[in-house]
Design brief:
With 391 residues, the protein is α/β, with parallel strands linked by helices. The strands form 3 sheets. An 8-stranded mixed sheet has the order 11-12-14-13-15-18-16-17, with helices on both faces. The longest helix has 18 residues. The chain is elongated and about 65 Å long. The chain starts with a helix and ends with a helix.
Length: 391
């Protein structure tokens, strides 16, 4: 149950979002017995064709050509007939069609169920059976939208004297960059957590949600940690892309995780300004984690012995590697790996944090197809091990 203050803040942040409506029907997606619609947050579908009775071709298109092949889709299927119907749906995309496997959910339900499918080069086919006048959502992953994040952040507050939901600024289209700020006056140490730079990377979002819920729980080991550490949690860095169901980019057509060097986006500018202000005020960023998804579970780290371009050496240089090794031991049934690399001109977040603030930073990638219980197990192990290593 949210406090009155949290409800007021939730209303304030959500009402400040752009109120434009999403198109109900993508091109050609209304037929005599079935309708495919996208009039909800994260809805995405380009156009439709009827192949023959009960069989339909649905086409996916990215927000910009030549981007990472991450064909996101989310649409409602409504049976307009007065009897149960089975519809055969084939999704088409230029490449990467099988990255996100189809899932179905009833309207207003949080449960998502896998849909059996077949696939080929550039296509993915499945069937949906619906009772008369019924509607379901089909999506590549669970839908976690902007409103969910704001409400979720407010629900984490256990110590109002130390924690509050803030807005770091607004996105290109005016959506709030909501964050949870936890401050301890007696400490100058900071943990920074961000997610959803790339909209469809939902397994990374699930890991962050579980990590955050544990971090702000009543468990003694985390409540003790919160007495010693300041925390900034920004779970949704790309609210425009999430709203539009973008495959990878912001509303401005930019890959946010390539913008941290030049900071052309209001989103990257807002967080960079916050971090610069806190460090100029005496704060020290000890660790930063950027949650993502890819085809395997992997931690992207800086190379061992890396020297930040600021000239300031990293404190406790083995911290990241000891952390990952301990996580792997704690959840040895889940395949994990790490891959070191330095890319000074790439504009990725971990490089920016390391070079600018001489702080440890990791890109925490979760497999697109990882079992949800395993995602939570690894996230819990990551938090426990990290707390043990942040002195």
């Amino acid at each position: 149950m949210l406090s009155l203050a949290s409800v007021a803040l939730f209303s304030q942040l959500t009402l400040q979002q752009p109120q434009e409506d999403k198109p109900r029907n993508p091109d050609g997606c209304s037929f005599e017995q079935v309708e495919f619609t996208t009039d909800f947050a994260a809805g995405r579908l380009h156009h439709c064709e009827r192949e023959q009775e009960g069989q339909f071709k649905l086409y996916l298109k990215p927000e910009k050509e030549d981007i990472n092949p991450s064909p996101w889709y989310a649409f409602a299927v409504e049976n307009l007939a007065h009897e149960s119907k089975t519809f055969t749906i084939t999704l088409f995309a230029d490449k990467g069609i099988s990255r996100y496997k189809p899932k179905r959910s009833s309207i207003g339900e949080d449960m998502w169920h896998p849909v059996p499918f077949s696939e080929g080069d550039g296509w993915l086919k499945f069937k949906v059976t619906l009772p008369a006048q019924e509607k379901e959502i089909i999506a590549g992953q669970e839908i976690i939208d902007n409103v969910h994040y704001i409400e979720w952040l407010s629900s984490l507050i256990k110590e109002p004297e130390h924690s509050k939901v803030i807005s770091l600024g607004v996105s290109s289209e005016g959506r709030n960059l909501a964050a949870l700020e936890h401050t301890v006056p007696s400490s100058d140490k900071w943990l920074i957590l961000i997610g959803r730079q790339h909209p469809p990377e939902v397994t990374g979002a699930i890991a962050l949600l579980h990590f955050g819920e544990l971090l702000f729980s009543d468990e003694k080991y985390v409540s003790d940690f919160r007495k010693q550490y300041n925390i900034l949690l920004v779970p949704n860095m790309n609210p425009d892309g999430v709203y539009h169901g973008n495959w990878r980019l912001t509303a401005a057509g930019v890959d946010m995780n390539r913008d941290w060097k030049n900071q052309t986006l209001p989103e990257t500018q807002a967080l960079a300004k916050y971090l610069t202000k806190l460090t100029k005020g005496g704060g020290k960023i000890e660790f930063a984690i950027d949650f993502h998804s890819t085809h395997r579970n992997v931690f992207y780290t800086m190379p061992k012995g890396y020297e930040p371009s600021s000239g300031v050496p990293l404190r406790n240089p083995q911290r990241v590697y000891n952390w990952i090794e301990e996580i792997a031991e704690m959840v040895d049934s889940v395949e994990l790996e790490y891959q070191p690399g330095a890319h000074p001109d790439s504009g990725v977040f971990k490089q920016f944090i390391t070079d600018k603030f001489a702080a440890h930073a990791v890109t925490y990638e979760v497999s697109d197809s990882e079992e949800r219980d395993n995602i939570k197990r690894v996230a819990e192990a990551a938090l426990i091990s990290l707390i043990n290593r942040l002195d």
